[in-house]
């Protein structure tokens, strides 16, 4: 497979790396535009999908079904995401790993994978937003 290592892709990778927390393709596209880049939205979508499929970026679905991306540490991990400010904490979850393995095995599944991300309000937002 030919790697499409274009300037667009590098621009997207750089923009993602300098972004705190998860961001949508539209959000990243807007940031790039504000920085003066002529990159198109479709290109941003494709570059993000490429980065995610090669493990260079994490992707997840927000509760309202939007794909969000982030340049993450490599290796399997989970996220706590503040749905108000976007703060993202990477967490390890041994209990989840054990449970997922056991649940899969008990149904005869092998090579099971899982995605577990927790959305909520961070401590800061919890104290500033009235209930
Ligand atoms: Zn991550
Ligand atoms: Zn927050
Ligand atoms: Zn896990």
TrEMBL record:
Molecular function terms from GO: DNA-binding transcription factor activity; transcription cis-regulatory region binding; zinc ion binding
Cofactor binding comment, as recorded: Binds 1 zinc ion per subunit.
Keyword annotations: Cytoplasm, DNA-binding, Iron, Metal-binding, Repressor, Transcription, Transcription regulation, Zinc
Residues annotated as binding Zn(2+): 82, 85, 122, 125
Pfam families attached to this UniProt entry: FUR
InterPro entries tied to this protein: FUR, Fur_C, WH-like_DNA-bd_sf, WH_DNA-bd_sf
UniProt similarity note: Belongs to the Fur family.
Cellular component, GO, one term: cytosol
Localization terms from the record: Cytoplasm
Subunit structure: Homodimer.
Superkingdom to which the source organism belongs: Bacteria
GO biological process: negative regulation of DNA-templated transcription; regulation of secondary metabolite biosynthetic process
Binding site for Fe cation: 76, 97, 114
SUPFAM superfamilies from the UniProt entry: Winged helix' DNA-binding domain
Lineage start: Bacteria, Bacillati, Actinomycetota, Actinomycetes, Micrococcales
Organism: Leifsonia tongyongensis
The protein's name: Transcriptional repressor
Cofactor(s) needed for function: Zn(2+); Mn(2+); Fe(2+)
């Amino acid at each position: 497979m030919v790697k499409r290592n274009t300037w667009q892709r590098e621009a997207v990778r750089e923009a993602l790396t300098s972004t705190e927390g998860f961001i949508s393709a539209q959000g990243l596209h807007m940031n790039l535009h504000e920085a003066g880049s002529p990159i198109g939205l479709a290109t941003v979508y494709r570059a993000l999908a490429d980065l995610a499929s090669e493990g260079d970026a994490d992707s997840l679905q927000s509760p309202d079904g939007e794909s969000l991306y982030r340049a993450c540490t490599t290796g399997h991990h989970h996220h706590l995401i503040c749905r108000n400010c976007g703060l993202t904490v990477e967490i390890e979850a041994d209990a989840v790993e054990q449970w997922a393995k056991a649940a899969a095995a008990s149904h005869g599944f092998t090579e099971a994978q899982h995605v577990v991300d927790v959305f909520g309000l961070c401590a800061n937002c919890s104290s500033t937003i009235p209930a």
